[in-house]
Specification:
Layout (H helix, E strand, L loop, with lengths): L3 H6 L5 E3 L8 H9 L4 E4 L5 H14 L4 E6 L5 H10 L4 E5 L4 H9 L3 E6 L2 H10 L3 E5 L5 E2 L7 H11 L4 E4 L5 H9 L4 E4 L1 H4 L8 H9 L5 E4 L6 E4 L2 H11 L4 H8 L3 H7 L23 H23 L1
Parallel strand pairs: 1-9, 2-3, 3-4, 4-5, 5-6, 6-8, 8-9
Antiparallel strand pairs: 7-11, 10-11
Helix pairs in contact: 2-3, 3-4, 6-7, 8-14, 11-12
The structure holds NADPH dihydro-nicotinamide-adenine-dinucleotide phosphate.
The site of NADPH dihydro-nicotinamide-adenine-dinucleotide phosphate has 20 residues, from β7 and α13.
Length: 315
């Protein structure tokens, strides 16, 4: 199968692994790329020298295309961009910022640029900035989330109706059935995050991976809405945020409550009570830790079976 996304990235399956802080290092990215999807290194939790190491290791581990996710609110963004240019990273997914800021610099170096958006307005802004594709990420997604709370089912047809560039659907997608649904809505690729956290290749702490596997429906909620809305697995930290927000906490109070490096404590060091545990709603459908390559293959097989079922029904 070939479409605009497989051609754009030169990959076998239009399945993209999301760049997630404290989860997506070179091991995960290269495993996904080797399996025929697109692996992405999540630079948001990496100091510049750490990113450089991961890019170099990834090049050793795969001869397939891979990318780097760059959250634009990162403190040392210009240093990360420099490394991306020096190391000739072929694909960059930017997120959490203005697509105008870095797209032309990256494009001038021959890099394929994709921006992550949570609304049609931002998709149009990204297209105008010259990106090659957008990831439209619905409210089901883990981590940083759109303020308008638009769900994937509503977001994807809205965005695909308005932009000409290809759209990659994200948020709530961990299976081939969900991929088929996203394609029915007009997406040409899917970006999958949470499912890849529960793999041996993810750099996340085993406690966190196990918590993802154990998560049930309703176990994630969006908090810190006055700061940056973020979908979290419920724990003692989330409950403290929830209580503070119910009591009308202002931005400063929430900042103090969050403190520093809570995401690292939760997802990388395995503190399941006081850490920040960023994961999507779809964690309730994830029941085991399994290799990333198997995840890619399973999603692809289930996508094909699902589409065939629809075809048989129509025939
Ligand atoms: P904090 O300010 O609480 O802490 C910074 C954390 O980032 C520390 O753990 C630190 O590691 C690490 N870090 C990596 N590089 C740097 C750097 N250059 N300067 C300072 N710290 C750095 O931030 P968060 O943990 O909440 O978020 C970190 C980053 O992840 C941000 O850039 C943010 O944009 C991004 N992010 C992206 C999300 C997404 O969904 N795409 C979700 C959440 C965050 P150490 O402790 O070893 O010093």
């Amino acid at each position: 199968m070939e479409n605009r996304i497989t051609s754009l990235f030169n990959i076998k399956y239009p399945i993209i692994q999301a760049g997630m802080i404290w989860a997506s290092g070179w091991r995960l990215a290269s495993a996904v790329s080797n399996a025929g999807g697109l692996g992405i290194i999540g630079a948001g939790s990496m100091y510049p020298d750490v990113l450089k190491y991961h890019v170099q290791q990834c090049k050793q581990a795969t001869d397939k295309p891979f990318g780097v996710n760059l959250p634009l609110l990162y403190p040392d963004i210009d240093k990360l961009v420099q490394i991306i240019l020096e190391e000739k990273v072929p694909i960059v997914f930017t997120s959490a910022g203005n697509p105008k800021t870095w797209t032309s610099t990256l494009k001038a170096a021959g890099i394929i640029v994709v921006h992550v958006v949570s609304s049609t307005a931002f998709a149009l802004k990204s297209e105008a900035a010259g990106v090659d594709a957008v990831v439209a990420e619905g409210f089901e997604a883990g981590g940083h989330n759109g303020r308008e709370e638009t769900t994937t089912l509503v977001l994807i047809p809205g965005v695909t109706a308005q932009v000409k560039i290809p759209v990659i659907a994200a948020g709530g997608i961990a299976t081939g059935k969900a991929m088929a649904a996203a394609f029915a809505l007009g997406a040409e690729g899917v970006q999958v995050g949470s499912r890849f956290v529960a793999t041996p290749e993810a750099s996340s702490h085993l406690n966190f991976k196990q918590a993802v596997v154990n998560a049930k429906e309703g176990d994630t909620m969006v908090g810190l809405k006055k700061l940056t809305p973020v979908r979290l697995l419920k724990n003692a930290f989330y409950e403290a945020v929830h209580t503070a927000e119910n009591n009308g906490a202002d931005i400063e109070t929430l900042k103090t409550l969050l403190g520093r490096a809570r995401a690292k404590a939760g997802m990388f060091e395995g503190d399941l009570e006081e850490g920040e545990l960023e994961i999507g709603q779809v964690s309730s459908l994830i029941t085991e830790i399994k290799p990333a390559g198997e995840v890619v293959e399973e999603i692809w097989q289930e996508f094909q079976t699902t589409v065939k079922k629809f075809r048989d029904f129509v025939d």
